[in-house]
Fold:
Amino acid sequence: MDIVPLRPDFGVEIRGVTLARIAADDALYNAVRAAFEEHSVLVFRGQDTDNDVQLAFTRRFGEPEIVPVGTSGMGGHFITLTNFGKDGKVVAPDHRYALRNKANQLWHTDSSFKTTPALASILSARVVPEHGGGTEFVSTRLAFESFPAALQQRLENSFAWHNYAHSKGKIAKDLASPAERDAFPPVCWRMVWRNPVNGRKALYLASHACGVEGMAEQAGLAFIDELTDLSTKQGTSYEHAWKPGDVVMWDNRATMHRGRPWPGTEPRLMVRTTVSASAADGLETMRPPKQQAAE
Ligand SMILES: [Fe+2]
Structure:
């Protein structure tokens, strides 16, 4: 197994192994897990991935998320991101699938709006468009480390509210369905996630963030926008250009990502599985003190 940097500061390509072998071999898993903790984004190319292999790989890292009712793929472990319908035809630009793809193009962290947020996402390319459609990543760990000490300290004592309907509402008012609104009430998280393995801290932010505890609504939103801009400065990202068979895994505690646009006439099909964060991943340190006291 070889580990090849994608950038000097974060992200690596893992070569010479398949997801199936990693899932079946403790030593390989431990090496990949260490790379995940250290480098935040892992790229695997030329994988012959089906849903069974992807799920077995996902399970090595923790509990796979169940896709909630009201969402595509509900009740199962697989979220299908696509722009074509059951008839195989590409959907119109105002179709829910197309609008969801647009929401996905905002900088975000997967599942920050859930009562158990995500440790990792694993995305595999099944059908890729000819032009565009990449996925772009930034390291919120490196962003946090670049902030002045006073801002770091402020963030360590700050808590943000995350709401699924908020990010979807930026694209279309009713894009979050009533069932989804019920399934995902707003949740509050510390704005800094400390990795318990290496002690490094990362800004925890997303397009789902709709307010900052103790700040007036507009001031909180402006602070979130400012932090997003600081974390996504030009030249700090890695954009993955997908080929069929590629799999990318990322640490949702230490990165933000966004989908990039592509011509709406070209089909795209990606399958995502997600690992829920656990106490071992530092989840218990993320809850606001009030919430901890209530439990
Ligand atoms: Fe995402």
